[in-house]
Structures are given as structure tokens and as C-alpha cells.
Amino acid sequence: MPDTGRIRGIVARQRELAEAVAALTRSGALSPSPRKWGAIARVVLRHGATMSTLYAIAAVRWPDRVAVLDDDGELTYDELYRHAMALAVDVRHRNGRRPSTMAVLCRNHRGFVIGVCAAAMTGAEVISVNTELPSRQLAALIVRHRPEVLVLDEDFLLEVDAYRGVLVSVDSLSTPGVPSGVARDTVSRRAGRITLLTSGTSGLAKGVPRTITAWGVAQLAGTGAARVGLRHDDIIEVAPPFFHGFGLLAVLGAAAVGATVVCHRRFDSATVLDDLVRHRVSVLVAVPVMVQRVLADPGVAAAADRHHLRIAVTGAAPITNTTVREFQRRFGPILINGYGSTEAGLVSVSSMDELVETPDTVGTPALGVTIRIVDDADHAVPIGRSGRIVVRGPLKYSGYTPDATTPALTDKAVVDGFVDTGDVGYLDARGRLFLCGRSDDMIVSGGENVFPGEVEDALSTHPAIAEAVVVGVDDREFGQVLHAFVVHRPGEPVGTEELTQHLRRRLERYKVPKRFEVVDEIPRNAGGKVLRHQLIGDASLSNTKASNSE
């Protein structure tokens, strides 16, 4: 008897491959001049399946096209590739051999791209380091990963003064000039690894190593072209940090189709709005909190009247229905929402039409990805019923980087190649994924399960609320009660009773927070994720004080 499940999988993979090829052809990525095919083939043979291959191909196909437009000006694909090659040669010479590990500690500018590309050229494991880490955590990460080479911005030099490996400041990179023989000896075809760090919202960020494969690169390029619609002539503003998976994915996706990346070392909503007009940005990539700040900026109306956007992509954190609708009202039905995790990689992508119809979906599986919803016994649940989201895709999760200082480090569960994302959600009859929330964020109040996202979304519909986060705190009577942190819009204060009545008209009574606390801002990490553990501590302290005063 034939294995029908395996046959269906093969057919699905072939269909996805055909979709990716067609989309890449439309984007211009697979339509080079015939006279360049030989040069492209030589580049692929020389570099193998690595991140540097994307930039090597781009340098052959579009040498004079701007690859990066940052705070220091423009850099073409040819210039970027030559800078990366020069850096790779330099670190090999200073290290005495090709390094096995290279860490990159750079904000959003050309230096990050050059550093990652150079590391990939040498076959080293690339460690992408969070630029917003406190000094103590940064030191702990360097001890854990032991990079032989550290590429960094000059303003981080004092924070790594104890580092004893090869130190390279990207601010001091000189104009490259590398003999071809030296370059050939430097480039490795070995498929290196890239290690991304988890968000670290509950402690020291964990390292998640990934081996770069040809299928992984193909999925990246295919999803960017087929599901997002990237084209070779796009000007892409990438606002999320490059060290984060979302930002890195956007940067590599741009290289795959030969587009231009616009970036700045620090996010500023007014600068983004100015870029939309000044640089005729056609694609905006931003995490939800950045989208919120763009919409709240005084200059949004003027930019919305003059923008050239045809696509906006968000992801990496939950986005409220209110924010989706407001963005669509300002800029048109151009928003796409993506979902993924450091461990699982890119999981799903919504289309523009899907977000217009259903703003809370995160879409259908990305190319090469299979999504299952399972119960606690790993059994599949029916369509429409919520459960644990487990994922299998081209980026194989193989555990966290070992850490002698934290022996209790627990890997994500993997069953039959499916990794547990730690999220809870459900699939509808059309295969669209909907998120309920993080399994460890669920609040159990009086025996009822409450996911904060539903309450936060309802709060966001009140015109006086700019942001809202709901956490659970211990309670003797109910086990846990809900505590809401809210940020008011300027000049629009609102009382607890009004918010309570607002929620009671929309939610079951047990989902209404017991207390509301007004704050100036919601604490987040550099990737835009809410620091819930910090807020839980704040809420517990507030509730204790309130109880003592009653």
C-alpha cells in the first residue's frame, strides 16, 4: 500500500516549489540577462548555500543598484560584497584561520549586513547579538557563545573591554581591495550556522542555532516573492532590529530579489514617515508597536496623502484589530501580518485581503511549513478548536545553545519534527491560523481560562486608550485576577468605571480586570515584545498595597 500521507506531502512540496518559482520570476529575481548565468553559476559553486550567496548573486546581477541606504548614505550591492570580502579576509588573517564563530553587535546599518555576510563567507557560525542588552547580560552571552571574532559598533567598545578575541569595529572599515587569490582561500562553501537569540522577556536570552540550507534559502526567497510580493525594484524600509529574526528576514528577503533596504540606527516614527515620501518607500516592515507609533505621529496625515507604499508587513508580536483597521484607513488595504518564532522560524503569512476580511488572523502556512493544532497529549484537535500550535518547516530546530551557567535550560518539545511554539491558537476551515495567546500567559481566574489578548483587544477599541496590557496576579479567592495597565491618549483621561462598563458590553464578566493602572508607557524589549514578567511584578505590588489599604 502506498503511503498516501507521504505522497500528499510530496505533491504539496512540488506545488509550493512551482508557486515560488513563478513568484520569483514575476519579481525579477529569476530573470537575469543570459550573459550573467555563467557568472551566477560560478558564484553559487564558490559560496554554496550560505547567506553570503544572496549578496554574491546580487553583486553579479545588480552591481550598481543600492543595497543599503542608511544614516551614512548609499552602498551598492557591489560595494557591500567587496566590503564583506575584505572583512572576511581581515578576520581570517588576524585570527590565524577561518573563525568557527563570529558575533555581530551592530544596530541597523550597513555594518550589520557586512558583518553577517563576512561571517557567512568564512563558514563561521554567525551569532546575532541584541544591541539593547544590559552590560551584564551582554558579558554573559559572550561567555556562553565564546565568539572568536566580535564585529561591533564603536559605541559598544567599552561594554566589551574584557573580550579577548579578535575585535573589529565596523566604524573603522576601510575601502576594500582584496586580491582574487586571497579571496578564494577565504571563502568557505561549508553551510555555516546562524544563532538568533530569543526575546529574553523572562531572563537571559537563549541562543537558537540554525544551519543554513539550500531549501531554507529557497523558502526565504519564495515566501518573500509569493506571499509578500517583494520585487527587485522595491525600496524597503526595515524598522525592526536587524539582530531580531523579523528584521533579519526582511533584510535577507530584500537581497534575494535585489531590492534596496532603507534603515536607521534608531527607530523614530517621524523619520519613518519622512522616508515614505523622501525615498519613495514601497514596502514598510515594522513590528506592531512601531505601527502604533507611526499612526500616533502628528505627521501621519501628511505622509498618508503622499506615500508610495504598496505593501506594509508587520509581525513578531500581537497586533490589535483596532491598529489594523486604523492603518488600513490611513494607508489603504496593504497590510500583511506574519507569525513566527525564533525556534520555529517563519510560520504563517496573511494576505492583504485576509486582513481586510478578518483582522485577527495571521494567515496560512509559509512555503514549506506545516501547522498542527494539538492537545496536551499531542493529538490533533478539530477545526475551530484551540490547542497548542506545533510547526514543522525547513529551518530545523535542534535545541538551545548549551549553557554551563544555566544547567536547567529546557529545550522546546519536538515530536515527529514538529516544534512546540509555546502559543495557543486554532485553524479555521480555510486553513487560516488564529492566535489566542502564549500558553504561559493564560490567566486562570475562578476556574475560567482567559487569554490577555482578547481583553487587550477590547480595551483598544476605547477611543481614550492608546495601549493596554493585561496580566494575571495571584488572588486568594479566585486563584488569579486580571490587572490592566493602560496608556491614555494625550488629553483623553478615562476612569475605571467607564473602562469596566466598556468591557462588560463586549466580554464575559470574568474577563473584566479587577484593577486598572494608568502608566506612561508599556515596557518592551528591543523587538517590541511586552515585558510581561516585569508588569506582573508591578501588578502584584500594586495589588498588595491596595489590599493593605482596604
UniProtKB/TrEMBL annotation:
**GO molecular-function term, one example from the UniProt record:** medium-chain fatty acid-CoA ligase activity
Pfam families (UniProt xref)? AMP-binding, AMP-binding_C
Boundaries of each AMP-binding enzyme C-terminal domain copy? Answer: 454-529
Q: Where is the AMP-dependent synthetase/ligase domain?
A: 58-400
Q: Which GO terms describe its biological process?
A: fatty acid metabolic process
Q: Which UniProt keywords apply?
A: Ligase
Q: Which InterPro entries match?
A: AMP-bd_C, AMP-bd_C_sf, AMP-dep_synth/lig_dom, ANL_N_sf
Family annotation (PANTHER family): ACYL-COA SYNTHETASE, MEDIUM-CHAIN ACYL-COA LIGASE ACSF2, MITOCHONDRIAL
Family, as annotated: Belongs to the ATP-dependent AMP-binding enzyme family.
Protein name per its UniProtKB record: Acyl-CoA synthetase (AMP-forming)/AMP-acid ligase II
